[in-house]
Specification:
Layout lengths: L1 E3 L2 E3 L4 E5 L5 H11 L4 E4 L11 H10 L11 E4 L19 H14 L2 H27 E2 L8 E2 L2 H9 L5 E6 L2 H11 L1 H7 L3 H22 L1 H7 L5 H5 L5 H5 L3 H10 L4 E5 H5 L1 H15 L2
Parallel strand pairs: 3-5, 3-8, 4-5, 8-9
Antiparallel strand pairs: 1-2, 6-7
Length: 293
């Protein structure tokens, strides 16, 4: 909590970061039930980075945590931030203004001309998106000390810059990428509508998605594709739903940044340990200890 001219403002002290289809709602329910007085669960609006400008950030700080919080006895926790762990695909135009200040004027210059407007989404859009991505890169690719590879200022580093030397407690729930992919394929209706259902149809979907991913990786590299896949050109953008479920089961490129930016703040738990009766209690104890409960 910090003091401001408008009074005390508190930020969440903990986040369950994700990932998708890993059981974060189940974990949140167990945490709430085990510590109903000490844990103050926050709504989705308390998740980090769900805003597009400075005013949105100010609203987050004003509203994320209730004024009634007693920080000496309670922990305010955003328990449903499943989209935060893997900071894609729109980090380029969620956390700063440079992408949007490049892209939208570029698009307007084209769509104001009838002939250009007709071909924008097939042709000129990629000129605008490439320029916007360059603007993003210029804003976030900072030099390292000592000199070395570019330092990409991603979500974990933004969170660190806000919290400083007192980082929040972070929990990520990770599930077998194959099981998670099957769950997503059958859980989202648009995959069944396009590919059909059953093992053979699922295999066709996976083959197509992996081929699209590997083509991007060969050209742009793993990290670049994991963060910016559909922004990188018409070929990645043409992959059905932009290989999103492949990327959502790809934890390492994202977890690496969290570990580098906020060493000691992140606890990774296996979904399987939380669901298995013989290991559930031990997994919950790890979560409780990490949160200081």
């Amino acid at each position: 909590c910090i003091g401001t001219p408008a009074g005390r403002r508190c930020a969440p002290g903990a986040f369950v970061l994700g990932a998708w289809q890993t059981g974060t709602k189940h974990l949140a329910a167990l945490l709430r039930a085990s510590h109903p007085e000490a844990l103050v669960p926050l709504g989705n609006g308390a998740c980090w980075g769900q805003w597009k400008n400075d005013e949105g950030g100010r609203r987050w700080l004003e509203r994320a945590v209730p004024a009634s919080l007693d920080p000496s006895a309670q922990l305010a926790a955003a328990l449903h931030c499943h989209a935060t762990l893997q900071f894609y695909p729109d980090s380029a135009h969620r956390f700063h203004k440079w992408w949007e200040e490049s892209y939208w004027p570029c698009k307007k210059r084209c769509t104001d001309v009838p002939a250009c407007e007709k071909t924008y989404y097939e042709k000129e859009m990629w000129t605008c998106k490439a320029a916007a991505l360059r603007a993003h890169d210029a804003a976030v690719d900072l030099p390292t000390v000592p000199a070395g590879g570019a330092f990409n200022f991603t979500t974990p580093w933004l969170l660190r810059s806000f919290y400083g030397s007192r980082p929040p407690r972070l929990i990520a729930l990770l599930r077998s990428p194959i099981d998670r992919l099957v769950h997503a394929f059958y859980g989202h209706p648009h995959y069944g509508k396009k590919y059909g259902v059953g093992a053979r149809r699922f295999g066709e979907y996976v083959t197509e998605q992996v081929a699209g991913w590997r083509a991007c990786e060969r050209r742009h590299g793993l990290r670049r594709c994991a963060i910016h896949f559909e922004q990188l050109g018409p070929e990645p953008a043409a992959v059905f739903f932009h290989a999103d479920q492949i990327i959502r089961g790809m934890y390492a490129p994202f977890v690496e940044d969290w570990l580098r930016a906020m060493a000691g703040a992140l606890l990774c738990l296996r979904t399987e340990d939380l669901l298995e009766p013989t290991t559930r209690r031990a997994a919950l104890r790890r979560a409780w200890r990490h949160l200081g409960l």
